[in-house]
Amino acid sequence: MKTSIGIRLDDEFIEKLEELGKEENLDRSTMIRKFLEMGYRDYLKKKASEGYIKGELSISGAADMAKITVWEMMKYLVDQGYRSDYSIRDMMEEMEML
Question: CB 3.0-4.6 Å disulfide test: which of 21, 51, 71, 82 passes with 77?
Answer without folding.
Answer: 82
